[in-house]
Amino acid sequence: MHKLVSFAGFCSLLLMFSCTGKSSGTATDAPSKTVCALQENVSIIAEPVSFAVADDGRFVLTDFKNVYLYSSDGRQLRQIGHSGRAQFEYLNPSCVKIHNDTIYVWSANSMEFITYTMDGEPVAEYQYGSAITDFVPDDDYIFIYTAGNRFENIVDIYDKSSQKTASSLTETSPEHKLLLHTWASVPMCIMDNHLYYAPKDRLEIISYDMNGNKLTTAAEIDSDSFHVEEISDYDSMARDRRKRSPYLRENSQTLALFQEDGKMFLLTIEGEGKMTDDAYDTSGLHFGLYSADRKRDKTADYSYDSIGTVALFSSNSDGLYFLKLSNDETQPHTLRKLIL
C-alpha cells in the first residue's frame, strides 16, 4: 500500500498550468505499455517527485524524502543514502539521475549533487549554490537546466573536477522564466556526444557539441497549437499571483526531449484547462508530440488522462517513460513506456 503525500508548493503550481491552442478534440489515448508496478517491499513511499530509468531497466526514484533503487520488475532493491545534514546525506531530494552505474541525487535544501554507487555507497558531493529545474550528468560535466539565481541562461555546464560552472548556454526570455514557475518536466537529453535542449516557451531544439563546444540550432518546429504570449516585465508578473496564475493557465510549454530508434521527439502540453469550484479540470488539456527529424511536424495529440502527469518523465536510449500515479491506496503506481 503506497502513501500519497500532497506537496502544497508543487500542487499549487501544477493547478495553475494549462495552455491555449489546437483543440484537443482530436487527441487520442497515448499508446503505452506497463513496464512494472511499483512494489514497497523495503519501505512505503510518499508521492514520487522524480525518477530515472537506466538502460538496463533498473530505475531510481525519490519521494522528496528518500531515494530508492528499483529492479526492472518494480521491486525495491534498497534505499540509496539517507536524509540528514551529515556528509553524503540529502535534504529534500527533488531530482535523481543514473549515469554509468552512478546514481546522482539533487539535494534541494543544501543545493548540491550527491553521487552513489548502485549498491548505495557514497562517491562524491558537488556544491552548486542555486536552485535547479533539472539536470543531465555526463562523465566530466553536469548539464543543469537552471532556476533560481542562475536562470539568466537556460543551461549551466558544471565542471565536476573544479566544482564550478564552466560556461552557460542560451540567454533566457521573460516567458521562459515565468513558465519555470510550473512544476513540470523540462526538455533536455544527451545523444551522440551532443547535449540537446529546448526553451520552455518555444519549439526550438538547440544542440551543444560536447567535443567541439559548438552551439547550433538543431530544429525549429512550426505549430498552430503551441502558443506562448509575450510579456514585457518578468518581475512584475512573477510577484503578482493574479497575473502569474492566468498566464500559466493560458500558455503552452515544452516538457520532454527524447530519442527512440535514432530519432528525436519533443513532448509538449497544450489545450485548455479550467478552474471549477476550486478544482482543476484537466479534461481540456492534451499532450503534443513533435518529430525533430527532417519532417519537423506534429505526429500525435494525446489525451491528458492517458499520461496524467506533466512532471514525471524519464528517458533513456529506448525512449520515454512516465509514472502513472494511483490515487487508490490499494493500487500501486505503475511505470509505463510510451509506444511510438
From TrEMBL:
Signal peptide as annotated in the record: 1-21
Xref: SUPFAM superfamilies: Calcium-dependent phosphotriesterase
Keyword Magnesium listed: no
Superkingdom assignment: Bacteria
Record InterPro entries: 6-blade_b-propeller_TolB-like
Pfam families referenced in this protein's UniProt entry, alphabetically: DUF5128
Keywords linked to the UniProt accession: Signal
Protein name: 6-bladed beta-propeller
Species classification: Bacteria, Pseudomonadati, Bacteroidota, Bacteroidia, Bacteroidales
